[in-house]
Design a protein that fits this description.
Blueprint lengths: L2 H10 L11 H4 L7 H4 L1 H12 L4 E5 L8 E7 L2 E7 L5 E5 L14 E2 L4 E2 L6 E2 L5 E3 L23 E7 L2 E5 L7 H4 L1 H6 L9 E2 L5 E6 L3 H9 L4 H4 L1 H4 L7 E6 L3 E6 L27 E6 L3 E5 L3 E11 L2 E10 L10 H28 L16 H18 L1
Antiparallel strand pairs: 1-10, 2-3, 2-5, 3-4, 4-9, 6-7, 7-8, 9-10, 11-18, 12-18, 13-14, 14-15, 15-16, 16-17, 17-18
């Protein structure tokens, strides 16, 4: 059974209670209703309608830097294995043996030879091919005519890597990633093809938020809250310095025209991306690439926040920061990397209280989804409209 068929079957068995409402009004300017944040059934349905048909982010290439490196993950309850094969390419497989469904890999590791199932020692190479099946036909008989090993390789999930982010398309039928993201790569064409270098342990942190994953995106998309939630940031990058970014059906967010933080008194600065137009000397942009990754791009660094929805009311935000040259990752720059990391962590932590407050507020029985500012919340509404479209498209 293909992965897409398995997902469809599992969701066909969902209870019929709490049916999804008609969301046409959301596309016309309304907001998503409370169940989209508080109902576990809706969260389950999102896996089929929102995450599976699109390109969802599940990890980072820096987690498996060498050939043979493997990292097991769980994404929306599905056991996956991120793997760098012998040629250095990143691949994603279901992390289960084709024999009895045993989990193959429990901890990050490096495979120099084969991937061996710990249950009955069926072995797969780094390309996912089933190579050996000990005693399959009885003691000492490692083959059987009823079992064709060439047909029993690991289930591979359609995947791609962009800016070191690993994306998967669980359903297998999304448009090619290059087509799906062409509007963003065109907007950021100056950065396309330029290398990024992860800053190391001091450039990585996780935040656990007791809220629905969508609220993190909605908050990230707008700058309306800056004066009250981020007074430090607003002291030099003010509300009036920001602008909306909206590409309907793909991404939305905000930008600033005054990005130029002072990192220390010596005047040191990180190396810049090459050949940037003048606008990027003071400009930075922050977008949510639907469905689950938040991006921030600057002249001197790039960050990504992978949103891992654990349940309808709990989300992990995994933050990774990248620089423009390998030199910027060396010990001589550790103090500035630490300051960048602390700066962003302080800002993202400031958001936790309001995101969790909105989650609690969604249990108010008379709350109807809210009233958005046509100007200040337009990027947030673009995300609401996209989610509504995902549900409408799959039920038409």
């Amino acid at each position: 059974m293909k992965l897409a068929d398995s997902i469809a079957l599992s969701h066909a068995l969902l209870p019929a209670s709490n049916p999804i409402p008609d969301l046409a009004y959301v596309r016309d300017g309304g907001c998503l209703p409370n169940p989209f944040y508080t109902d576990a059934t809706v969260f389950e349905e999102e896996q089929k309608r929102v995450f599976a048909p699109n390109w969802s982010c599940v990890g980072f290439g820096k987690d498996i830097p060498k050939a043979g490196d493997a990292k097991p993950i769980s994404f929306l309850g599905i056991p996956l294995l991120l793997l760098r094969d012998k040629a250095g390419s990143i691949r994603v497989f279901q992390n289960v043996c084709r024999h009895r469904g045993m989990i193959l890999v429990d901890e990050p590791t490096n495979f120099r030879g084969v991937i061996r199932c710990p249950y009955h020692s069926w072995c797969y190479n780094l390309e996912g091919e089933l190579k050996t099946t000990p005693h399959l036909g009885g003691p000492g008989q490692n083959d059987h005519p009823a079992v064709t090993k060439s047909e029993l390789g690991l289930y591979e999930v359609r995947s791609t890597v962009w800016m070191d982010l690993i994306f998967v398309n669980l359903s297998g039928d999304a448009p090619d990633f290059e087509d799906a993201t062409s509007t963003l790569t065109s907007r950021w064409s100056e950065f396309e093809g330029q290398a990024v270098f992860h800053g190391g342990p001091d450039s990585s942190f996780n935040l656990t938020v007791e809220s629905n994953w969508k609220l993190a995106i909605e908050n990230y998309c707008e700058s309306y809250h800056l004066p009250w939630i981020h007074p430090g940031l607003n002291s030099y990058s003010k509300l009036e310095d920001h602008y909306n970014i909206i590409e309907a059906g793909h991404f939305s967010g905000q930008g600033t025209t005054v990005y130029n933080p002072k990192l220390d008194d010596s005047g040191r600065n990180f190396s810049h991306f090459k050949n940037l137009p003048e606008k990027w000397s003071t400009c930075a942009e922050y977008v949510a690439l639907y469905p689950n990754v938040l991006l921030g791009i600057h002249k001197d660094h790039f960050y990504a926040i992978l949103l891992e929805p654990l349940s309808h009311d709990r989300t992990v935000e995994r933050v990774e920061i990248y620089y423009t040259t390998a030199e910027m990752t060396e010990p001589a720059w550790a103090d500035l990397r630490q300051r960048i990391s602390e700066m962003w962590k302080e800002i993202f932590v400031e958001d936790i209280g309001v995101v969790q407050g909105m989650q609690r507020g969604r249990h108010a029985t008379q709350f109807d989804g809210g009233t958005l500012s046509p100007v200040m919340d337009s990027a947030t509404h673009a995300f609401h409209a996209w989610v509504a479209e995902q549900f409408s498209a799959k039920t038409a």
